[in-house]
């Protein structure tokens, strides 16, 4: 089957507003995964959804949350979110990995070890010029923060995901 999708803009302002609203709390519509391995990617998915307005209900490989028991791994798992965003050809948000110089508010940062899986997700809420670890500010969960510089984190590799748009 050949599907044709319309590409719409990702609403970065809505994603960042959501991040500020819920960075230090929990939206009761979603389970808090803090005691189940971490809530960072669940929170980042909520932010992306606030900016995209659409989920991809493809079983297993999509990106959605209906309930804590009816969701995809990409909604709550950092490495699965990376794979979904960078390979998605269907409905929903899609992204490409870029350098720190090419990120803007609403984009995603993920951390990994040099040769290990991605383990943490953050959303960019502000970027200085030129972008540096000190002036790229993020929000995230598990350890709840907002307007926090990347330089506050100890990481080996940062993956910068620029959300290019949303297919509907």
Task: Give an account of the 3D structure.
The chain has 168 residues and is α+β, with helices and mostly antiparallel strands. The chain has one domain (7-167). Helices cover 23% and strands 30% of the residues. β7 and β8 (145-149) form a beta hairpin. The longest helix has 13 residues, at 40-52. The mean pLDDT is 96.
What is the helix tally? 4
Whole-angstrom Rg: 15 Å
Number of strands: 9
**Overall number of domains:** 1
Low-confidence stretches: none
Overall helicity: 10-25%
Overall pLDDT level: 96
Tell me the major beta sheet.
7 strands, antiparallel
Q: How far do the termini sit from each other?
A: 16 Å
Order of helices and strands: EHHEEHHEEEEEE
Structural class determined from secondary elements: alpha+beta
Please state roughly what percent of the residues sit in beta strands, choosing from under 5%, 5-15%, 15-25%, 25-35%, 35-45% or over 45%.
Answer: 25-35%
